[in-house]
Design a protein that fits this description.
By secondary structure, the chain is of the alpha/beta class. 42% of the residues lie in helices and 21% in strands. The chain has 2 domains: 7-140, Rossmann fold; 149-398, EAL domain (TIM Barrel), CATH 3.20.20.450. Strands 6-7-9-10-11-12-13-14 form an 8-stranded mixed beta barrel. A 5-stranded parallel beta sheet has the order 2-1-3-4-5, with helices on both faces. Helix 3 runs parallel beside helix 4 and helix 8 (208-228) runs parallel beside helix 9. The longest helix has 21 residues, at 208-228. Bound molecules: ligand C2E and calcium ion (2 copies). The site of one calcium ion has 4 residues, from loops.
Amino acid sequence: MDGDMAISHLIVMVVEDHGFQRRLALRLLAELGVQQRLEAADGAAALALLSRQALMPDVLLVDLDLPDMAGIEFIRRVAEGKLARAVVLACALDREPLQSVQNLARSHGLRVLGCIGKPMTVGKLQAVLEDYAALIDEADGDPPIEISPAMLRSALDDEEISAWFQPQATLANGQVVAVEVLARWQRPDGVTLRPQQFIPLLESAALIDRMTEQMLVQACHWKRQWALSGLHLKVSLNLSMHNLGQFDAADRYQRIVREHRIEPREVVLELTEASLMGDSANALNVLARLRLKGFGLSIDDFGTGYSSLAQLAQNPFTELKIDRSFVSGAAQQPRRRAVIEASLELARKLNLGVVAEGVEQVDDWQMLAELGCNYAQGYLIARPVPGDQVAEMVARWRRPEC
Ligand code: C2E
Ligand code: CA
Ligand code: CA
C-alpha cells in the first residue's frame, strides 16, 4: 500500500448540468492539485464515461438535481455497478445527506462523504476530500493490487487467511461472552489485507466456501484453546450469501463444529441485511436447516438494508446487529438514538438478542446499557486480534463506570 493518500492522487469526476457550476468545481479541484479530473453534464453521459474508465474514480461530485435521470437514480446505478468508491453531493444547502441516499449507497459499499452547499468553495471541497484521503489511509486503502484466482487459491492452500477475533461484551455487567471472527489475509510480502479487498474476489472465483470453512475450523480450534484456560466464548462467523447456495451447507458446518466437539448453539452465523434482500428460496431453506441444527442466526448491519417487518418475522433469526453507523456517536445524536430504540423495540417483540456494533465511546456504551441493549462490540472494548491474543485482550478490558 502506498502510505499517504494525498488529495492530488485522487481521481474525481464532476457530474453537473450547469456549465458554470461544473467549470467552477473543476477549477477548484485543479487549485487543490487534483490531477485526474473528469466531467459529465448529465447522468447518462457520466455512466457512459464511467463504464469506459480503466481505474475506478475515487470520488464523484454529484449535483443532486440532475435533469433527465434524477440524481438519486444516478447514484443507485453507480452504487449497484460499483462504478466509484465515494460520492459527494452538491445540494442547495449545507446539510447532512438524505438518509435514503446514504442507505442506498451504503448497502452497495459506496461511501457518501457529505453534502456541499452551493456555491462550492475551495475550503469545503478540500475538507471533504481530505476526510476521504484520511479514511482511505486508516481503513483499507483498497490498494490496486492485482489479485488473480490463482493467487487466491494458493492463499487458501497455504492457509494465509487467518481468523482474527473481536470481543462482544454484555452491557449489563461488562463480561465478554463472545467473539466475532474477522478474516485477515496476511500475505508473504508482509502486507495484511482487509476482507473487503479479497472477499468479493473469493466470491466471484467460487472460492468463498473454502474460506468460510477455514474460518470456521480456525474459530473452533481457538475456541477449544480458550476453553482449556477457562475462557468460554461463543463465536460469530460471517457468512456470504454465496455460502447458502448449496443444499449441504448446513450439514458441512454442523460436521465441522462437531469434529471440534462444539455445539452448534455456541456458534452464531451472521448475514448482512442487504444480502438477505435478494433472498432465494434455496438460501432460506439452508438458513432454516442451520437454525434447526441449533446454530444462532444474526442479521448483520441492521438498519442499512430494507427489511420489512414481514420478512423479519418469517425468517429464523435469533439476533440483530445494529449497524455501527447508528451506534457510533448515538449518545450525542437523537436521530441515531431513535433508530436504536426502534430496533430494540422490534427485537423485543420478535424475541431477538441485540448486539450494537461500532461502540467506540463511553457515553455510547452507557446509553446502550440504559436502553437495555444486550451486547456491545467495538473499539471501546477492543480491536480485532489474532487467536493467541484473545485471552490477554479479554483480561485487559474493564467496563466503563456507569
Ligand atoms: P462486519 O461484519 O460489519 O464486521 C465489523 C467490522 O467493523 C470489522 O471490519 C471490524 O474491524 C470493524 N469494527 C469493529 N468495531 C469497530 C468500531 O468500533 N469502529 C469502527 N469504525 N469499525 C469497527 P473488518 O474486519 O474490516 O471487516 C469488514 C467486513 O468484512 C465485515 O463487516 C464483514 O462483512 C466482512 N467479513 C469479515 N470477515 C469475513 C468472513 O470471514 N466472511 C465473510 N463472508 N465476510 C467477512
Ligand atoms: Ca459481521
Ligand atoms: Ca456489521
